[in-house]
Each structure stands twice: as C-alpha cells, then as structure tokens.
Amino acid sequence: MEYLTSSDGKGITVALKGRLTFSHHDEFHKLLLDLASKGVSQLVFDLSSLEAIDSVGLGLLMIARDEIASRHGRFALRNPQGQVKRIFSISKADALFTIL
C-alpha cells in the first residue's frame, strides 16, 4: 500500500495505491494515528488507484470511518474501481460507506 495525503483547507484526502490487505494493518493504523493527532474531522479516501482489497482492508476502512464519526466528522470513499468496486458490491460494504 502506498498513499499520498493532501488537504483542500476543509479536510484531508488520502489517495491509496496498490493493495489494502492484512499485511498493511500496522501501516494503516499509523496513518490513522497521524491523522487523529492532526484533529482531522473530514476525511476522504480516494480509491481510484487501489488495485485490490481484502476483508481486513474493508475492516480498516470501517475503523477509519468510525474514528471520524466519533469526532462527529465526515468520512467518504471516492471512486473505487475494478476488483475493489466488485468487493464493495459483493460484500454489500457499499451500503456502509458514503461513496463519491
């Protein structure tokens, strides 16, 4: 998993690239801790370059969503493609997230 963060003054966008799987658990949690320390209350994960996700990856996104919700913030996913979009549809996870 690779990621790039950017800010538009209103919130943070994290563009994910590659795969989001069990092996990225620790790295993803470090990212969330960094964002929490900055007080991020609006967070978008751009999934347009994410090639694959597994059930743990879905769980990691749910953790991020819940973390933002606990601060009454806004959370969304943007533009899932290919296998990632199929996994969201098959698992019905698309009903659990705001997808832009």
Topology:
Elements lengths: L1 E6 L4 E9 L4 H13 L4 E12 L1 H16 L3 E5 L3 H9 L10
Parallel strand pairs: 2-3, 3-4
Antiparallel strand pairs: 1-2
Helix pairs in contact: 1-2
Q: What would your notes on this structure say?
A:
By secondary structure, the protein is α/β, with parallel strands linked by helices. The protein has one domain: STAS domain (Transcription Regulator spoIIAA), CATH 3.30.750.24. It is built from three helices and four strands. The chain has helices at residues 25-37, 55-70, 82-90; strands at 2-7, 12-20, 42-53, 74-78. It has a four-stranded mixed sheet. Helix 1 (25-37) runs parallel beside helix 2 (55-70). It is globular, with a radius of gyration of 12 Å. The mean pLDDT is 94.
Largest sheet entry: 4 strands, mixed
Let me know the CATH homologous superfamily. STAS domain
Strand order of the largest sheet: 1-2-3-4
Q: Given the C-alpha coordinates, what overall shape results?
A: globular
CATH C-level category: Alpha Beta
**What is the number of independent domains?**
1
The CATH architecture category equals 2-Layer Sandwich
SS summary, helix count: 3
Query: What is the helix fraction of residues, given as a range?
Result: 25-40%
Order of helices and strands: EEHEHEH
What are the segments in which pLDDT stays under 50 over at least 5 consecutive residues? none
Q: Mind telling me the C-alpha Rg?
A: 12 Å
Number of strands: 4
- By secondary-structure content and strand pairing, the structural class works out as alpha/beta
